[in-house]
Amino acid sequence: xxxxxxxxxxxxxxxxxxxxxxxxxxxxxxxxxxxxxxxxxxxxxxxxxxxxxxxxxxxxxxxxxxxxxxxxxxxxxxxxxxxxxxxxxxxxxxxxxxxxxxxxxxxxxxxxxxxxxxxxxxxxxxxxxxxxxxxxxxxxxxxxxxxxxxxxxxxxxxxxxxxxxxxxxxxxxxxxxxxxxxxxxxxxxxxxxxxxxxxxxxxxxxxxxxxxxxxxxxxxx
Length: 221
Description:
Distance between the termini: 15 Å
Helix content: 40-55%
Strand content: 15-25%
Number of helices: 8
Shape: elongated
């Protein structure tokens, strides 16, 4: 359980995750530190975060009160998710989250995954899994997508950044095909995001009245 206050999905994306939230000052849950750790040890990140990192997410490793989930793309570290726990009383634990992207191919794929747009997708997916486990509810991928979409709308420069990187990727492929004599190297406007998350992200960033519906989130301490 956690202390709740009504906010919008946009507030969840910007405030609940970042400014003063899980990726900034942490969030407090009404759980003892051992109980919080046990719940985090049991979560499965593979369902949502694999597409966000380009790798397969492992079970967590633990060092002290920090749990780390690594996403691997072959022998490359595609990204790392961490949750650090700090006791604030017998039945209160503050949880700090962080995400660090790594490398999937040493080229354009890395540039794509390092954009703020893709980092936001990974972070909102991670946050939803952790928050659900600690709050004793079922994880809702749709809730994570709403938060991700709200953040994208609040930061259109992130959408522009990934658009530029994607265009450069397809231009590079077109030039390679042209130099090898395959096709004419003209992809026109049909380029799509080269990631399994593309369709989900495209749907998430379309206008959606549901994003402004009241939701609940943890009060900042």
